[in-house]
Amino acid sequence: MCPDLLSGYDPAVSSVTRPAGSKRQDRREELERRLFAATEELVAQGDGFTELSVERLAAAAGISRSTFYVHFEDKGDLVRRLAATVLAELRDVSATWWETADHTDPAGLTAAITAIVEVYRRRAAAFTIITETAAYDPTVAAEVRGLMQSIIDATRQAIERGQAAGVMRPVRPAETAAILTWMVERAGYQLVRGTEPAQDENVVAALTDIIRNTLYAR
Fold first, then answer.
1. Do 29 and 62 contact (CB within 8 A), yes or no?
2. Distance of alpha carbon 7 from alpha carbon 14, whole angstroms
3. Alpha-carbon distance 58 to 62, whole Å?
4. What proportion of the chain, given as a percentage, has pLDDT over 70?
5. Residue 30 and residue 165: Cα distance in Å, rounded?
6. Is the model's pLDDT at 11 over the cut of 70?
7. How far is it, in rounded angstroms, from Cα 14 to Cα 108?
8. What's the pTM?
């Protein structure tokens, strides 16, 4: 007789049965998405995040107040996780350029800037929440600084690769990466969020032109 049957272990069943921890993680991620979406929708409708109570956020997401506190310490914790999610999106789309930064023709630059502007457009309420909360919550501010620094570091590494390949000018990699990263952040926050979508193409063109002329040798 098969040992697996003696032990009660069925490989076919095991291969499709997910661990309990994985299911819990899925539920937690789904709850986070619902809370993020509900919070962003309320702020997009004109509510100030500081005035929104946990009870109202939970109700908008279709959960109880007690369930909120099972998964989040407080509203600041919610914003820290929201910041991690949104800035991870920025990192993902920025990789389109980072991965091709050492090419003579930086075709990925326009694609990356276009995608970055789209993130600022689509998640405008999230950026409003993050920026406004960071102004008075030092833990959120520290989270944002750390996440932005990771983007700056990746940009610096892309510049260093471009310089090593001989396609970029001899700029200071660390300082230039920091300045360009914060320039894109401010453009996204001030020129995309809260403006008409028709302007996005002009913002993309201007940012792409500035970065290309700053970094790439002619």
1. no
2. 13
3. 6
4. 90
5. 43
6. no
7. 43
8. 0.85
* Common-topology check for domains 1-72 and 74-218: no
d(CA 151, CA 114): 17
Q: Is 162 helix (H, G, I), strand (E, B) or coil?
A: helix
d(CA 72, CA 79): 10
Going from N- to C-terminal start, the domains of the chain cover 1-72, 74-218
CATH architecture of 1-72: Orthogonal Bundle (1.10)
Mean pLDDT of 54-60: 96
> For 110, phi and psi rounded to 5 degrees?
-60, -40
Residue 78 and residue 57 in contact, taking contact as beta carbons nearer than 8 Å: yes
Topology of domain 74-218, CATH: Tetracycline Repressor; domain 2 (1.10.357)
| Chain CA centroid to CA 67, Å | 25
The two tokens of residue 150 are: 């990771």
Q: In 10 A of CB 140, how many CB atoms? A: 24
Residue 21 has pLDDT above 90, yes or no: no
Q: What is the pLDDT of residue 19?
A: 61
CA atoms of 131 and 190, how far apart (whole Å): 11
Q: What residues does 216 pair with on adjacent strands?
A: 168
What is the average pLDDT score of the chain? 90
List the single range of 40-44, 180-184, 194-198 with lowest mean pLDDT: 194-198
